[in-house]
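Predict structure. Chain length: 314.
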Amino acid sequence: MDFVIFVVAMATLIWGADVLVNQSEKIALEFGISEFVIGATLIALGTSLPEMAASIVASLDNRPQIAIANVIGSNILNITMVLGTIFIITKNISPDRDFFAKDSYWALVPVFVFILMIIDGVISRFDAVLLLILMGAYVLFLIKDAKVLIEEQMGDEEEEEKKGFRWIESIPLIFVGLVAIIGGANFTIESASNIAKGFGISEWVIGIIMISLGTSMPELVVSITASIKGKVDMAIGNIIGSNMANTTIVLGASALAKPMNIDISNYIFDISTMVIATLMLVFLTANRLYNKPAGISLFVVLGLFLEHTLSSIM
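Prediction complete.
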């Protein structure tokens, strides 16, 4: 029964995030916000809402291992699974933006800051504030950067979306999306914890595989859809922005709600995999290796990560 509840709750969580993202995008288009800013901020933050909801609930429920594992697992999956899938299924990827020059800093810094913070075994409320300040700096960077971008006229598809915008429809849908996210997060954590206890699996494994896999689905769906539509900048920007949001806002909000303890000696492999995946992202963007071989290399890392995690419960 717990497994059924987990699947339904996760589906509700993802559906709520999808509704919120769609309505946020419509509002952004209504006010003429650029496509890149939509992808790097609204959509990136929106697709990170499941991680945020799940981690905050886990933290408040005295399950910090699930909260932290969810963030680490989501960051790994966003790069290896989501980006790898985009590289494999998309032809002729030629993003206009130089992600290495403009965004590699924001991919690496939060990961290194996270490692520094957990050396003492706890993410405190002071650490949480610093993480939120770091996210604020990222948003300011995007706003400043957006001002120097050459804005293109919105296409027919965007105009059509804009014409379909109505406040009377968007506001209720945003509210429903938020309720679905919060409710889904509560039931997801509770059922996942029960499953872990029933099978003798640690809450860390449940968080880093089951929950992080589920909460990464919005990034996967949004990024693949954007790539198919030729909006590669939005797809890759969504991944970088989502990982930034996971490490800063998700962890920050969770630790602000309740300080979280972690014994890093038990999770060296997972933390190292997150660092390696992030370095691979920087390397691929630096050399503009947006191709199938790069996607396969990311899937190799994903395979090693899954094999190591699953072997620990066999």
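Summary: The chain has a mean pLDDT of 81.
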